Amino acid sequence: MDNLVRHHDYTLAIAEAVSGQQFSWFWLHGAHLLVGGKKMSKSLGNVYYVNDVLSRGFSGEQLRFFLSYRHYRKKLNFTFDKFAQTCRKLDEIKSMVADLQNMEAPDKSQNHRALTRKITADFERYMDDDLDLKNAFDSVQKTIINLHEMRRTLGAEDVKNLLSGLRQIDSVLQFIF
Q1: How many structural domains comprise the chain?
Q2: In this structure, what CATH number is given to the domain that contains residue 121?
């Protein structure tokens, strides 16, 4: 956010002059990352680096999820408690997806095609709304929870469609699989 004017224009001009190609189609100018309610800054001494987070047993996927699980224009307040709480949300989804991947389809199943298609449709709708990743992920989570609860009625085709949709979504997110 602090670099919105001039700095990014300068970076873009240099990158394109050196490469001779367009550097980027889009720039996202995110709001500040706060630590304990204060702007993260070297001068305040409240900077956490990726290795600081990883050394506490968290994964890069969890960190990427935490940093993404909000609207990019809103400030994000980092505390390890809030971080751990957000990570549990991701871990629960990953666990349910693993259950669905490993389950055997029942002999008799109901058709849940509309619900499995809802995952990608809702995800795209929220992402098309100024990259509303939080609501996009929450909608995916809600649908996965519903399907996980109905897993005994899912057929092989339902599971295949669900996993295909989730892989498509995860090609953007890169923290589900």
Answers
A1: 2
A2: 1.10.730
Residue given tokens 């994000």 in the structure block: 76
What pLDDT, on the 0 to 100 scale, is given for residue 24? 81
72-126 pLDDT, tens per residue? 999 999 999 999 999 999 999 999 999 999 988 666 667 788 888 899 999 999 9
Can you give the residue range of the structural domain that contains 144? 31-173
Tokens of residue 96, six digits: 């349910």
Instruction: Report pTM.
Output: 0.82
Question: Which two tokens mark 168?
Answer: 């498509």
Residue given tokens 């990883």 in the structure block: 54
Tell me which residue of 1, 8, 6 sits closest to 23, measured CA to CA.
Answer: 8
CB count within 10 Å of CB 84 equals 15
